Amino acid sequence: MNARFLLALAVASATAAPTLAAQADTLRLEVGSKKVDGRVYQPHLARVRVRVGEGEGRQVAEWTNELTLGDSAGRPVMRWVTKGTRTQPSGDTIKWEIRQTYDAITLAPYGYDASSTAGGYTRLTLNGRRVQGTRRAPGASTDQPVDLTIDRPGFIASASDLVPLAAGLKEGAVMIAPVWGPAMTNSELRIFSVLGKVTVNVEGTDVEAWKVEERRHADRVLTATWYLTETSPYMVYGEVPLPNGQVQRMSEVALPMPKR
User: Fold this and answer.
1) Domain boundaries, the chain
2) 203 forms bridges with which residues in the sheet?
3) Nearest-CA neighbor of 175 among 191, 199, 161, 187?
4) Could you give the CA distance from residue 112 to residue 81 in angstroms, rounded to a whole number?
5) CA angle at residue 166 from 153 to 83, to 5 degrees?
6) CB-based contacts of 218: which residues, under 8 Å, 6+ apart?
7) Can you say whether residue 158 is alpha, beta or left, with left for phi > 0 and alpha for psi between -120 and 50 degrees?
8) Does the predicted TM-score (pTM) go above 0.70?
């Protein structure tokens, strides 16, 4: 899992849309669809490094993603813990942590808890279209309640790269799925197009991965390009267009799971 925090904040720049694959290859997914099977994801730990700029660019953030599996009220769940740091333009470093709980099979989101040393936090529970909880803005002294009913359940936008692999990858496949994030008032449809297998360099190592483009359905704007594998760390490389024309590049490598 990658870019769970930064992708939710990134706003994509416009780019020409590709021709969609044949209708027979298009999967229309909803949260709870039997066409999605999150059991492809096994417990693992991985490190993500984020760079911006020409050439190698400058590293602006780093985080770890840890997935464990468990049970909640009889339901199998996956628990993601993301811990990271980001360097501000001023040179200051912000630390942050996000804890998320999804259905281990459908990827339906159940819980989202984010906080950072910049102050403020967001704590949400999700049940279908209903989103409830509290949030506090940085510098604020009181909580603000959250009680929102969105138009349709969505996969978490900052974890959108989980969807294609859970739905099954094959060259030419196209998937349309709703995504939602804590800053959104309703879900937004995304198009995932599987372009095929390519070789991508990940921190000095060539890795064979599936190349998947993610676009907004409404205007076909590119939001991300993912390079996915069937084993840990699953998303080995990603690119997110930024509003200023630069590209945010994310590389991910597997780490040993801690002993408990």
Assistant:
1) 6-255
2) none
3) 191
4) 10
5) 80
6) 188, 189
7) alpha
8) yes
Exposed/middle/buried for residue 127 (C-beta within 10 Å: 0-12, 13-18, 19+): exposed
pLDDT of residue 90: 81
**Distance of alpha carbon 64 from its chain centroid, rounded?**
13
The span from the CA of 113 to the CA of 177, in Å, is 23
> Residue 247 pairs with which residues in a beta bridge?
241
The tokens of 210 are what? 């599936």
Write out pLDDT tens, residues 37-94. Answer: 999 999 999 999 999 988 788 999 999 999 999 999 889 999 999 999 998 878 889 9
Three-state SS string over the chain comes to CCCCCHHHHCCCCCCCCCCCCCHHHEEECCCCCCCCCHHHCCCEEEEEEEEECCCCCEEEEEEEEEEEEEEECCEEEEEEEEEEEEECCCCCEEEEEEEEEEECCCCCEEEEEEEECCCCEEEEEEECCEEEEEEECCCCCCCEEEEEECCCCCEEHHHCCHHHHHHCCCCCCEEEEEEECCCCCCCEEEEEEEEEEEEEEECCEEEEEEEEEEEECCCCCEEEEEEECCCCCCEEEEEEECCCCCEEEEEEEEECCCCC
Could you tell me the maximum CA-CA distance found in the chain, to the nearest angstrom?
A: 53
User: Distance between CA atoms of 171 and 179, rounded to whole angstroms?
Assistant: 23
Q: Bridge partners of 155?
A: 179
CA gap 206, 200 in Å, rounded: 6
Q: Tell me how far apart the alpha carbons of residues 37 and 104 are, in angstroms, rounded to a whole number.
A: 8
Structure tokens at 157: 């936008």
